Amino acid sequence: MLTVHHLGVSQSERIVWLCEELDLSYELKVYDRDAVTRLAPPDYKALHPLGAAPVIQDGDVLLAESGAIVEYIVAKYGKGRLVRAPDHPDFAPFLYWFHFANGTLQPATGRNMILGRLDLPADNAVMKAMKARLDLALGLVEARLGTAEYLAGDELTTADIMAVFSLTTMRYFLPYDLAPYPAIRAYLQRVAARPAYRRAMQKGDPGMPLLLT
Q: Which of 96, 74, 78 is nearest to 159 (CA)?
């Protein structure tokens, strides 16, 4: 049995959503963050040396890193779903946007979150540069979604499953305004309409308002 260890309000929501999209049989174990520190509880940190979410168990396999987990699950259980094969015309965009999520978009939000906690002046050069980096990343997503329904083309793929966290739940840690990005907002409404996404968020983070606008 595949077990998904889900830390509330974290990137591990990607894995719950993936399992729901693939209609997999899996066990979901949900862990709440510490009410004071907002960090993972000790029993979650004990799962893996990094102490970070997500983590899955599949037989003797213990695996962390959301990108690696997504690739593992679709390779083992996906039966070709939610990915693009090398001979597909959208293969290169699929690869790009899949890796863009954790290679560019999420690091940009994470750096801005950390800098925002340092009480730096608004004209700090590093802060300005990192804000510009996030604006550039969001602008690239906006431009892509102005020409395609989903990041890899006309259908949802794991590239979307990787990216949506940074556009939604991450805003609990780094509030930012999506008003300048109408294509992203329309895209998030398409995601919100997916039953698998709704099921995943209800199972993993029941009661949490979804930041989809």
A: 96
